[in-house]
Amino acid sequence: MKSKISLWNKALFNLQLRTVTWFGILLTLALLVMLPISIFVQEVRFGPESNLWFYSANSTLNTLSEFSLPFQLIVFAIFPVLLGIVLLNYSTKKEATYFMHSLPFTRQTLLTNTYLAGFVALLSPILITGIVLGILRFFLEDPFYSFVDLFAWIGLSTFILVFVFIVTMMIGILVGNGLLHGALTYTVIAVPALLIVLTLLNLQYFISGVALTSYTETLVTKGIFFVRLTDLYTNSFSILEYVIYIFIMVSLVLLSYLMYAKRPSEASDQAIVYPVVRSIFLYGLTYFAMLASGVYFTEALQGGFAWTMFGYVLGAFIAYTILQMILQKAIRLTWYWKGFLGYVVVIVLLMIPVNIGGGVYENKIPTTATVESVAIYSSYSYGNEESGEVPRLTDELSIEQVTELHKELKDYDHDDEEFYSWNTITFDYKLEDGSSLRREYSLGETGSKVTEDLRNNAEFKQAYDPIFQLNDLDVTYASIHGNLQGDEKRISDPEELQTLINLLEEDVTENPSQVLAQENAVSLGDLQFNIARGKDIHRDEYVMHDVGYVMLTKDHLRTINWLKENDYADSLLLSENIDSVTVVPSTGDDFYMEIDEVIYSSNSISDKFPDALVISEASEIEELLDAGQNHSNEDYVVIINNENDYRHYFFIDKEDIPDFVLEGLE
C-alpha cells in the first residue's frame, strides 16, 4: 500500500497547540479586559457617554480599535512574537531538534502544523472577543459601535497579528537562539526603513540640498509597521498597502518553507544559521550603528566634519565587536579584523561615487526659462492644510527670485548659528520638459535677510502667507493670546472678523511675509484663527480646527490700532499696558539661571539684581520694545513688571540698547 503524505497531521498539530494553549488563554483574557470588560465597567461606572471620551471626530479607524488602540497595539506587538519563539523553541536546542526531525513527518509537515497551531492560538481569542462584543452590544444603553465596526475590528486585528507572527516565524528559521529570535524580529520590522532614513540623513553631510523631509517622513510612517499602526487614527490602510503586506506575508511563508527544508539539524549551535544571513546581520547592523553614531556626533553634539568621521569609526567598531560576540556566543571572542577592514574599504570606495555625484547634484540649479512652476515648503510655513495642495509660483519674477535664493542657499554657512534656530526650506520645481527637481536646505536666523526679496513678492504672499488664505475659509472665530494675561479673547462677529483679516492683509502687503522667516522682533501677542471642521455626531458639538496663526509685531500697525479701538488689546505687549520694566545686564555664565529663578518664582527682582534699572516712562518702554528680540543669547534682559505672578521678558543686543539705559546703569 502506498503511503499518503499530508501536510496536516492531527497528532502533530495537537502537540504544537498544547505548547501554546496558555498563550491563547492569556491573549483572550487581555482582549476581554481591554474591550468588553472595559466598555461594560465604564458604562456602569460613568454612564453610556463615557465610552465616547476616547472618540476622535476626524478618525478613520473603527471605534473598537480606537477605544483602546495603544494597549491593543502593545498586545499585538508582543504576543505573536512570543508565540513564534515558543513554537520554534525546539529548533534552538540540539536534542529537541533531532527529536522533531526524527519523527515520521516531512519538514513541510512540521512547519505547516506549527503555522496552523500559531494561527489557531492567535485567531481564537479574536473570535471569542468578537462574539462577546456582539452579545454585549445588546446590553449597552447607547451602543457606540456597530456590527460593521465589530467585523472591521476582527479583520484589522487578525491582519496585524498574522503579519507579525509570520515575520517571527521566518526569523525563527534563520536563527538558533531564542533571545536573538525575538530581538531580530523587531529589528527586521524597524531597521530597513530606518537604515534608508539614516543614509539620507548622512548624505546631507556630504551633499548640499538633499531633499530629506518628505522621504524620511514617508519612510518612517509607512515603512515601519508598528509606526504605521499608530497612524491608523487618521490614515487607514489603503488597498495598495493591504496588497503589499499580503504579498510580503505570502512571500515570507513560501521562503520559510524553502529555508526550513535546507536548515541543518545541528544549526542550533549557531546564533544565525545561514552564512549569507549572518553577513547581512553583521555588516547591515554595523552600517546602521555607524550612521546612527555619525548623526549623534553631528546633530546632538554639534560636532564638525572631523567629529562626524570619528562617530562613524567609533559606531562601526563598537557595533562590529558586539555583533561578533553575538555571532560567536562568547565575550572572549576572536576579533576578525580582516572583515572589519574589508567593510571600511567598501565604505571608502562607496564615498568616491557619492562625492562625484554629489557635486553634480549640488550644482544642478534650473534656469528661469526651464521652470514651469515651483512650490515652496518650509517648517515655518503655516496654512494650506484646509485650502488643498501647496500652491505653486508661476510668475517669471517669482521663479527668478526662487532660483537666486536657491543659489545662495547652496553655499549657505551655518557655522555661526545655533542648531535650534534652523528650519528647512524645500524647492519643488516642475520643469518645462515634464520632469521635476527637488532640493532642501537648512535656514537659520539670518535666513530672514536671505529670503527678504522673495518674502516681499506679491505672488509669494498670496500663495503662502496664511493671512491671504483666510478669506477662502469660513473662519468661526479668532483668538487673541497676549503676553500680559493668560486668558484669551475671542472675536466671533463676522463683520469684525472680516475687518481684522482685511487689516492683516494690508499690513502684510506693506511688509515682508513672516513665512520662511524666524521672526526676531518681540512678539506683542498672537492671533489664532479657527474653523468648525465638522460636527462630532457622538458628542453633538462642532470640532474646532486651527487654520491660521499670526505673531503680532510692531509691523502690524493697522491691526494693532484696530484691536486697541475695539478693546481687544488689553493683553498685548504694548507700552500703554505696561506700568514699568526692569532692565538687567548680563553678568556671566550663570546669568540666565538667575533670570529663570526670578521669572518662574515670586522672588523680588531688586533683591536678586540690585543694580538693575527700572523704567516707567511710556516712550522709553516703547523704544525698548522696538529694539527687543526673542532670542535668549543677547546682552540685556528686559523684564515686564506685572501685578500678576506671571512675568514676561525679552532681550536686547548691546548694539541696539538705547543710550538712556546705558546712562541709567552707570
Automatic annotation (TrEMBL):
Keywords: Membrane, Transmembrane, Transmembrane helix
Domain of life of the organism encoding this protein: Bacteria
TM segment ranges: 20-41, 69-90, 110-139, 151-176, 183-207, 242-260, 280-298, 304-323, 335-356
PANTHER family: ABC TRANSPORTER PERMEASE YTRC-RELATED
Official protein name in the record: Multidrug ABC transporter permease
